[in-house]
Design brief:
- The chain has 333 residues and is α+β, with helices and mostly antiparallel strands.
- It has helices at residues 44-47, 57-77, 91-100, 104-133, 142-164, 168-188, 195-199, 209-226, 232-241, 243-259, 263-279, 285-298, 301-308, 317-332; strands at 6-11, 14-19, 22-28, 34-40.
- A four-stranded antiparallel β-sheet has the order 1-2-3-4.
- It is globular.
Length: 333
């Protein structure tokens, strides 16, 4: 496997792919047409040098992915909204429009992100602590309690994924998630980017966000084994305050696993890739086509293959292939 540097995210009936500062979101509209939106996004780790330091960059990389993901998701959803042009906006909508004007969409998006973060902390950090606390009167070992809390956290996460995966839109999003991974795996294993090669590539990838979340849960167990406080309120505060630290450490582990071919990092990556069985599904060919369009909008995969797999694709390989195909078409015509 050769690291490509590209990453992505599934959106509603589409894929967002990012390469350095460029990103593209490809969506299949209800009429079957594939539309692409290209843009640039300069990450916080590039804007501020301190944010790019090891164990710090993970926090801001996660924030970047949330911002970019929300932008792409909002754009993709715009193709599937009900036609409400003839309907009068409600009182609350009018209030938001009058108050924020043209910035209303950004304000709503920011509010949704803040609420999502709050709920994630409550469900996946605080709730497992409170449930584990029920057993505190029977278990005296803080180490065992930390492990129990971590197991409850993982169980809640798995249950959450299982429940939402029953929704039709989420099922299809997980299929697009699989097509995103397959495209990246196809290229990073030296295969030409086409539907056939993508289809036979793996839908699990070491750099997936699902793996990141599992690493966070495991790292949190190790942290809370060491950091011990007496009262329930201090335990809750410690879970919240340590989130950036845990995220920073987890990012470094994921980063190393995603760029390394060592046996040790393969072992470290394996549980996260197993967990991806919940969040990635096998896509159909139409979804793979959308993912390929998104990749090609921001990534010169032919140049990448020639530079990283020269034994298979010597310099100028694809230029000669393209010329051969062009000549064949001219002869046929």
């Amino acid at each position: 496997m050769k690291y490509s540097g590209i990453g992505g995210q599934a959106v509603l009936e589409g894929i967002m792919m990012k390469n350095k500062d460029n990103y593209a979101t490809a969506v299949r509209k209800p009429d079957g047409e594939i539309v692409v939106k290209k843009d640039t996004y300069v990450s916080m780790t590039e804007k501020v040098k301190f944010f790019s330091l090891p164990f710090v960059r993970g926090i801001f990389s996660f924030a970047d992915s949330m911002i970019l993901g929300m932008r792409s998701l909002t754009w993709s959803a715009s193709f599937f909204e009900d036609d409400e042009e003839d309907e009068e906006p409600g009182k609350f909508e009018k209030f938001l429009i009058d108050t924020f004007g043209e910035k209303v969409d950004n304000v709503v998006m920011s509010a949704v992100m803040v609420f999502s973060i709050f709920m994630a902390i409550a469900i996946f950090m605080v709730l497992p602590l409170l449930i584990a606390g029920i057993f505190r009167k029977f278990i005296r070992s803080e180490t065992v309690m930390a492990i129990l809390e971590g197991c409850i956290r993982i169980a809640i996460f798995i249950t959450y994924i299982k429940v939402i995966s029953r929704m039709e839109d989420i099922k299809r999003t997980f299929m697009y998630h699989g097509s995103e991974h397959k495209c990246i795996n196809c290229l990073e294993h030296g295969l030409v980017l086409n539907v056939e090669n993508v289809r036979k590539s793996s839908k699990e990838h070491k750099r997936c966000g699902t793996s990141f979340l599992l690493i966070v849960m495991v790292i949190s167990i190790l942290f809370f084994m060491v950091i011990r406080v007496d009262t329930i309120w201090l335990r809750i505060v410690s879970r919240i305050v340590l989130i950036p630290v845990i995220a920073g450490v987890s990012y470094e582990v994921l980063r190393l696993a995603g760029t390394s071919n060592s046996k040790i990092m393969d072992i470290v990556s394996r549980p996260g890739m197993w967990m991806q069985g919940l969040t990635t599904k096998e896509p159909d060919d139409s979804m793979i086509e959308v993912a390929i369009v998104a990749v090609e909008a921001v990534f010169d995969w032919k140049k990448y293959l020639e530079e990283n797999f020269p034994e298979q694709y010597p310099a100028g390989y694809f230029e000669r292939e393209d010329q051969t195909g062009k000549n064949a078409q001219e002869i046929t015509a």
